[in-house]
Amino acid sequence: MLQGIIEEGKVNSFNIPVYYPHPSEVKSEILNEGSFDMNQLDVSQVNFYELDNGFNTAQCTRAVAEPLLVSHFGESVTKEVFNRFYKNVNDHMPKEETTVTNITMVLTRKP
Predict the structure, then answer these.
(1) Which among 11, 39, 77, 102 could disulfide-bond with 106, CB atoms 3.0 to 4.6 Å apart, if both were Cys?
(2) Whole-angstrom distance, CA of residue 60 vs CA of residue 103
(3) Which letter does DSSP use for residue 105 in this model?
(4) What is the pLDDT of residues 10-61, one digit of tens each?
(5) How far is CA 39 from CA 15, 27, 68, 101, 109, in A?
């Protein structure tokens, strides 16, 4: 916005709501909904700092956000936005151990 790439109004009207539930919330919602039996639920921690220099974080974010960004801001700015995002992540990533929590489930659809 400050560099004139994206209009201020478009920035102010853009929002990606994100919520990271606790594993117990995920389990509860699946069981309450009732369509599936839960065969397995595993929670694991991944040491993200050892796996990433900022590139993987930027690419994961891009995989989720790119279609939303393109539809809201247009395709022309998306590549530049992610190039800047990668540099920003790379420059500011914590230099200590950072973990990410993964939830893996095995579900069987009830008849």
Answers:
(1) 39
(2) 16
(3) E
(4) 888 988 878 888 999 999 999 999 999 999 999 998 776 666 667 777 888 8
(5) 35, 11, 34, 20, 10
